[in-house]
């Protein structure tokens, strides 16, 4: 049981990194608290698997430290870290039975046989593997194999954390849901820190209490699924989380206000001042499609637009339109009135996020 | 690497202990690595030493070979090689060997490819028995077929021709090629074939433009094995030839004459038989690592 | 893989079949034909039934050669298989060293078999050979033309030199097909090196080892050129193996009937041993049947 701290951690695969682009993990600080269920979410190649392998000790970071509680783990090999890891493709020992597979990590450290029997029985029960214990592991289906590899992590009562590296990739969709539930159940029962790497936001948000979103080797936001949705800390989070992703518009300062493309925006004073105060030329405003109001009549601070396309997705509709030369989308409940071709859109100020140099800036009201 | 500054006596002790453990572990890793290298190195020496000795003797005159024992040529000479390259009887041996080996490779691979495809993709009357029968040919000792081959090729007028040896080597090379290729072909999913047919490919076009490139390394490894077993074989090639198609291997027996054995020429001829092998390995070196498992892991 | 039932596949087989039939069936028929006849000349021959087979099976010289043959084959298997696995485990996995080691190790496989004999003759001779002179310098009267034990040891050493690379390359190739995740999982499960070998590497090697052992058994059982050149079968007949006995009988003495009978017995023994070995392996894996291996 431990708290995992990453202290000014960075990693590069090249021996002489010359710039930030040579780093798979850019310098970061991070704390995973004991007993949490975390997800590490990001597109492929963002460094999430690298980070996982650094925590488990399969990789040694080029800079910084990994601490379990207060102990520096950098130089300890995985076998001395008390970490379990479940890989993308199920790893089972083909020639062993399911029972032997589950007993393997315990036998390797010379656990007494009675204790092994007890632990294996308990874990097999949790994972619904009891009826398979005598079968050879090579004959199992992919999801059974994946359960066995999870089981090998769970039988050990000394593990500080279990790391999952996209464990459901090879599992059939209907079984994915069951296994995810199982994981959640296990987490509640054993109170183990779990870190779950995935590129699927749905998987991340159903599994985890807190999600770390990674982008280009950095954790750009660490928060609850709700925080990621409502106040994305980085334009990438806005784009990556939600379906469809956040609408983003680049804005420029004018003498008296703010404009995007050829459209002058009507903004609350605090927001306008914040934009004017910043020196950066990279200023963006973002709003989730869910919060864009689509009106049939012009209203206060509304803009006329032409609707390009409407997609009916059952309980809601996605309305696509072009605003100031940028494609925008709005998500409308099916009960809301929908204008035929010309409409007015409003961006409620509570849901407008300001991004300077891609990072979100809090605007005092 | 940044390191946290120890603040309490316990943490100082702990860090010191961890650093010591680390040093021990590194030392252990270094020892393991060196032990591995030494063992492998010893084996490589064992592999190279007899070949080195052959090379060493090939650059010495017979009087030096018999007169003094030395680890390298004292009077370096290429006379042994010169003798081989100036005597048509000698160098034609290499030409003959290469001729029948290449013919055999060509024949074997071109009939084995379609047959292996049939075995990997279709069921048909007698398929299992046929495959088993093919494999039994792999187990047939060449010595068994010596006499019948001699009579057969003599009666059809092929005795002492390259094609006779090439055909005789088909006995074990075709089954071997089919067996290796079948393994590689079975690891290509059948959906590939089906997609190609749906896209309107005819069988021959699909086979040549899509399927064969997919099992490239398999074909490379197969050719390697075909070369190997045809090039190294002595018994059949010696029996089926007299003068016109005599392989280098059997010409080498001429080095023993009434006046003793011509060691220098024997060594030089031996060195020259190794060279084609080196060329072949060099070409397939990148496929060996993967392909040697013959698609059956 | 589900195969399609289609008899037109025979057309794909046909060219191969004609060729192999020409080089296998016709000669084999000739052998069978001779084995049941006593041939004096082109016009005079008698049907003898199983007489030649009985003669051959009761021939003490051939029985001795058969025993020697088995002793030889099992000895070299016992040495080459573990050694080959060991070498494969030691071989570097990437970089130029991997290519270099690979090429060096493959070399002995591509040397004509009689040249292998010559190389070892040159290497082990007491007057000009590095090993021969070396051992004598150490004070042992090494002599492969006089001492049967020396001849045996040298032939076995030569075969180990010649063929261990085959096993090593097969295993190396098998090891390369193991995904990294297996090794990583084993580290996390705190498996010892031995456990990694026993439960990850060895199971993956089973298929290639079956191939390797079968190939090695077959070829060692047919060995001819190497001992013929190195020792000529001697001293006495201490290193005369089956192929050499057969060749002497068939070509040297022109005993057509007996040598044909001997040929068939020889062939059947190889078939039988391979079949027994293969079935034994397959049966031992039966309780965990998967998609067929070798």
From TrEMBL, chain A:
Keywords, sorted A to Z: ATP-binding, Cell membrane, Membrane, Nucleotide-binding, Transport
Domain ABC transporter residues, every copy: 4-241
GO MF annotation, one: ATP binding
ATP-binding recorded as keyword: yes
SMART domains xref list: AAA
Signal peptide: none
Alphabetized InterPro entries for the sequence: AAA+_ATPase, ABC_transporter-like_ATP-bd, ABC_transpr_FbpC, ABC_transpr_MalK/UgpC-like, Mo/tungstate-bd_C_term_dom, NA-bd_OB-fold, OB_MalK-like, P-loop_NTPase
One Pfam family, short name: OB_MalK
Keyword field contains Nucleotide-binding: yes
Name of this protein: ABC transporter ATP-binding protein
Highest classification ranks of the organism: Bacteria, Pseudomonadati, Pseudomonadota, Gammaproteobacteria, Oceanospirillales
UniProtKB/TrEMBL annotation, chain B:
PROSITE patterns listed in its UniProt record: ABC_TM1 (PS50928)
SUPFAM superfamilies associated with the record: MetI-like (SSF161098)
Membrane-spanning segments: 38-55, 98-119, 131-150, 162-185, 206-232, 263-284
Keywords: Cell membrane, Membrane, Transmembrane, Transmembrane helix, Transport
Domain ABC transmembrane type-1: 94-284
Stored InterPro entries: BP-dep_ABC_trans_perm, MetI-like, MetI-like_sf
Localisation per UniProt entry: Cell membrane
Listed Pfam families: BPD_transp_1
Topological category with respect to the lipid bilayer: Multi-pass membrane protein
Top-level taxonomic group: Bacteria
Family: Belongs to the binding-protein-dependent transport system permease family. MalFG subfamily.
Name under which the protein is recorded: Carbohydrate ABC transporter permease
Natural source organism: Billgrantia aerodenitrificans
Automatic annotation (TrEMBL), chain C:
Localization in the cell: Cell membrane
Key words, A-Z: Membrane, Transmembrane, Transmembrane helix, Transport
Membership in a protein family: Belongs to the binding-protein-dependent transport system permease family.
Pfam short name (any one): BPD_transp_1
Protein name in the entry: Sugar ABC transporter permease
Keyword Cytoplasm tagged: no
Top-level lineage group: Bacteria
Family annotation (PANTHER family): GLUCOSE IMPORT SYSTEM PERMEASE PROTEIN GLCT, TREHALOSE TRANSPORT SYSTEM PERMEASE PROTEIN SUGA
InterPro entries on file: MetI-like (IPR000515), MetI-like_sf (IPR035906), Sugar_ABC_transporter (IPR052730)
Membrane topology per record: Multi-pass membrane protein
Stretches that traverse the bilayer: 12-36, 70-90, 102-123, 151-175, 196-218, 260-281
Ribonucleoprotein recorded as keyword: no
Domain ABC transmembrane type-1 intervals: 66-277
